[in-house]
Design brief:
The protein is α+β, with helices and mostly antiparallel strands. The protein contains ten helices and ten strands. The protein has three domains: 4-92, no CATH class; 98-160; 168-310, 2-Layer Sandwich (Heat Shock Protein 90). The strands form three sheets. It has a five-stranded mixed sheet. Strands 1-2-3 form a three-stranded antiparallel sheet.
Length: 312
């Protein structure tokens, strides 16, 4: 039975994923809501109660519409069997081919080992107090570029990853602060700060923080790179429609190109990413896997506004 404990915070999810208003789903048998059989629902319930994050797939017609592919992640949440449901069409839109996904993961893994050795060597040299000021500057640059390569490898791996995220409740402000910490040396070098404007009573969001933080950090850095020294990256956090949470990042120095805004989220087609063309593509992939979304638009006199939407 689909019951009320989800309250209004899930209304947007019902309409977005199941394409039916919440009022049509509340207090209805689950097999009716999912367009399947009672036996299948009992099987899903048993898998959820095992609490091992089992993943099941359904291909179903909801409300007489076109068949819809759904992915269900089955877990125990606050003592209740729960299914996190995602429309697979959303995940597959713009997704990398299977071959590319495997290659991205393997390539990222293979490159991390030699890069770690280079990093250790550079850090060891930097501890040599007898180096000239010029050599110290060169090592500082080398360290910075190594961190850039590490983030690019992470994005490449994340863009190709298709595993089920580990969703937990997190405060949006904390997510931004933790992402900032990952790029603190670069922000400090550019003398750019991040200003967070959070509305009152913003609910927590359901995300896999370990996968979100690195891609969010890179987007913050991309925005910072377009600013003059002493500037500020402005992040606004507020309650969104239907119980969701909205985070807005403003990039005042850039305007969207004439092509469709969605091209910004295709790998290496983003003219705003300044050499890190996977950052927005990886961010969209991560958010979509976690029930969220990201969009961009140009606001007169403001620049480019990136809007991240999270499930509360």
């Amino acid at each position: 039975m689909v019951s009320q404990p989800a309250r209004d915070s899930r209304r947007g999810d019902c309409e977005t994923v199941l394409h039916r208003p919440t009022s049509e789903l509340m207090e209805r048998p689950l097999h009716v809501v999912l367009g399947t059989t009672p036996e299948k629902v009992r099987e899903l319930d048993a898998l959820a109660r095992e609490d091992r994050r089992a993943v099941e797939f359904l291909y179903t017609s909801l409300g007489g519409g076109d068949p819809l592919p759904l992915r269900l992640t089955l877990v125990m949440e606050e003592g209740e069997a729960t299914a996190v449901i995602v429309d697979l069409r959303t995940l597959l839109e713009g997704a990398p081919p299977v071959q590319l996904s495997g290659l991205a993961s393997q390539l990222s893994h293979e490159l991390r080992n030699p890069l770690s050795s280079v990093k250790m060597a550079v850090q060891t040299l930097a501890r040599n107090t007898g180096l000239s000021e010029r050599d110290q500057r060169r090592l500082t640059i080398a360290n910075r570029e190594i961190r850039t390569l590490e983030r690019m490898l992470w994005q490449l791996s994340e863009y190709g990853r298709g595993t089920t995220p580990n969703l937990e409740q997190h405060a949006p402000r904390t997510l931004v602060q933790e992402a900032m910490a990952m790029v603190t040396p670069e922000l400090t070098e550019r003398r750019v700060e991040v200003q967070i404007d959070e509305a009152p009573d913003v609910p927590r969001v359901r995300v896999d923080a370990g996968r979100l933080r690195p891609v969010l950090a890179q987007v913050l850095l991309n925005v910072a790179m377009g600013m003059t020294e002493g500037g500020a990256v402005k992040v606004a956090i507020r309650p969104g429609p239907e119980g969701r949470v909205v985070m807005e990042l403003v990039e005042p120095a850039s305007l969207l190109p004439e092509e469709k805004p969605d091209s910004l989220f295709k790998p290496y087609e983003c003219h705003l990413a300044r050499g890190a063309g996977l950052s927005l593509a990886a961010l969209r992939r991560v958010l979509q896997h976690q029930g969220g979304e990201v969009s961009a638009e140009t606001a007169p006199g403001t620049g480019t506004v990136f809007t991240l939407t999270f499930a509360a």
